[in-house]
Amino acid sequence: MTQIRERKADHINICLNERIAPGHCYWDDVKLIHNALPEIDADDIDTSCVLFGKRLEFPLIVTAITGGFSGAEKINANIAEACADLGIGMGIGSERAGVTGICPESYSVIKEFDVPLVIGNVGAPQLVPQKSKDLFSPDMVGQAKDLIDADIVAIHLNYLQEVVQPEGDINARGVRDAIRDLAREYPIMVKETGAGISREVADRLKGIGIRGIDVAGMGGTSFSAVELYRAMKADDDIRAGMGETFFDWGIPTPASVVEAKRCGLPIIASGGVLDGIHVACSIAMGAACAGVAHAVLREATESAKAVKEKLTLIREELRAAMLLTGSVDLSALAKTRYVVLGETREWIDAL
């Protein structure tokens, strides 16, 4: 238990103090076409959307960040309060720790706030046999859902992190069938954790009963980078070398949105989203909603007020982008023209 607490605390400290994202911001390659004659009143702009049957005041989720150590309770409480006040969704960090009795209050604190869409979190590697580790059973997935009163549970695909992590779970055989079985019992979505979802993977997932996909592409937090710093601290040269090699492994988020949206499921665009223009671009490219995590992490360590101020800025930037593209609502924004330049254009053309 001590090892899990320390690992989760390490992740937060590294994300706050080290470079954990690739040098290129792929969302900055996406440019919305300016409309000099928008013919709408900014006061009429409607940013609301419905995702998984829940109404959000604007299309944003603070996606999975943390849980499972003492400092996580404050972080999650601050995020939950801000999300409840602003009417947007919130995800939680991997719940294996909480379900097994490690700081469950760091997760359940979210129940104290009226967050309109709550997303649970269970690791896909824990659904299949791993060396000397117990399976995360369907009943435990139910416990994870109940721990935070989740509306839907995200099964996270984090094999990039696991393959670099010294204690990583690296058996991936049988994961799709395990997700399919869970989707027969619970509302389930699938989430990557920084390496993106390809068209082929989205197609393999769409027919097994899941409700949606968070592509969580390359461009935001790289868990290969996070594990690189942990390996350096432990003087593990092999794992540190692997972390460096796979630092920028994955599909850039905008390209992953284009790839995954063809499956027809609701797509959440997370990974490198930093501002309201990025949110607007994600909607224009076909996502139902955007997700942020690192963009509010430092604020979440401070106060709910700081988180709310940062999220309010993102909302107002989104509204401004909608006015400047003549988009009175998200349906109109989804039809607005855009261009893709640079490295992201190269990725999309090559896929």
Account of the 3D structure:
This protein is an alpha/beta fold. The protein has one domain: Aldolase class I (TIM Barrel, Alpha-Beta Barrel). The chain has 16 helices and 12 strands. It has helices spanning 2-17, 72-86, 96-99, 105-108, 138-148, 159-164, 175-183, 199-206, 223-233, 237-245, 253-260, 276-284, 294-300, 304-324, 330-333, 342-350; strands at residues 30-32, 49-51, 54-56, 60-62, 89-91, 118-123, 152-157, 188-192, 213-214, 267-270, 289-292, 338-340. The protein has an 8-stranded parallel barrel, surrounded by 6 helices. Strands 1-12 form a two-stranded antiparallel ribbon. Strand 4, helix 2 (72-86) and strand 5 (89-91) form a beta-alpha-beta unit. Helix 9 (223-233) runs antiparallel to helix 10 (237-245). The termini are far apart.
What is the CATH C-level name? Alpha Beta
CATH level-two architecture:
Alpha-Beta Barrel
The string of secondary-structure elements, in order, is: HEEEEHEHHEHEHHEHEHHHEHEHHHEH
Largest sheet: 8 strands, parallel, barrel
N- and C-termini, Cα separation: 42 Å
Helix-and-strand structural type: alpha/beta
| CATH-derived topology | TIM Barrel
Question: Number of helix segments?
Answer: 16
How much of the sequence lies in strands comes to 5-15%
DSSP summary, beta strand count:
12
